[in-house]
Amino acid sequence: MTLATPLRRTSAALLLSLAGASQAAIVEGTDVGPFRTFVDTATGTVWADLDNHLTFTGSGFAFRYADRADYLAALQAAGFAWATTTEVAALTAAVPMATTPEFVTLGGSMASLSFGETTTLDGYADVGDGLVQRHYGLPDYGAGTATWAVGGWTPWPSALNDSGLWAYIPGAPGPAPGVPLPGTLALVAAGLCIAARRRGAVRQPAAPRASARAESAP
Ligand SMILES: [Ca+2]
Questions:
Q1: Could you tell me the distance, in angstroms and rounded to a whole number, from the CA of residue 171 to the centre of ligand 1?
Q2: What is the pTM of this model?
Q3: 49 Cα–ligand 1 center, Å
């Protein structure tokens, strides 16, 4: 074993932990008015949870609003904008799913009241002209896979069902606190490499201070 081996192991573990943190684009958010939220850390956008139309009764779930228009009006009164299908597609493209564990993890933030009870991760986006489009997570528990899917354009249903609404409050661009900038990983790696070289290098005598003083003298 060389002197640098333990350092390399430490470096690898640190880089892996930082890389994992930077990939967590969706995190749980704090409530906005009566609405549960999740946050896209890449953009700072605060999204309303997809199950905000539901409330837990103690033994099951009930609708919180009279109909979908009532639900949308409450979201807008709290400052949320109803997302267009293009905006939702941009989000789901940036937050890909590949496995059912990823689907469950996302659902815990994006439908934090009901996920695990109803496994609903489903909302309508605004197409315009009274039309909507469902964007939803589609797990295949048999295969262990998951993906985002979209439905066709349909007239906006007035009655509430398992689908929520995609709605958001724009945030300041940039990563959330605690999420390293992409350049941070490179800086950490560079710093560790310098440290490794210093440990492995033969100590050199200090440069004469007289020359530095001579260069700075008037
Ligand atoms: Ca949430």
A1: 16
A2: 0.69
A3: 5
* Dist. CA 34 → ligand 1 center (Å): 12
pLDDT single digits (tens) 198-207:
444 444 444 4
162 and 115 Cβ atoms separated by less than 8 Å:
no
Domain boundaries, the chain: 4-10+180-216, 25-169
Ligand 1 centroid – CA 159 distance (Å): 23
Which three-class secondary structure string do you get for the chain?
A: CCCHHHHHHHHHHHHHHHHHHHCCCEEEEEEECCEEEEEECCCCEEEECCCCCEEECCCCEEECCCCHHHHHHHHHHCCCEECEHHHHHHHHHHCCCCEHHHHHHHHHHHCCCCCCCCCCCEEEEEEECCEEEEEEEEEECCCCEEEEEEEEEEECCCCCCCCEECEEECCCCCCCCCCCCHHHHHHHHHHHHHHHHHHHCCCCCCCCHHHHHHHHCC
pLDDT tens sequence across 2-51: 444 444 443 433 333 333 434 448 999 999 999 999 999 989 999 999 99
What is the CA(113)–ligand 1 centre distance, in A? Answer: 7
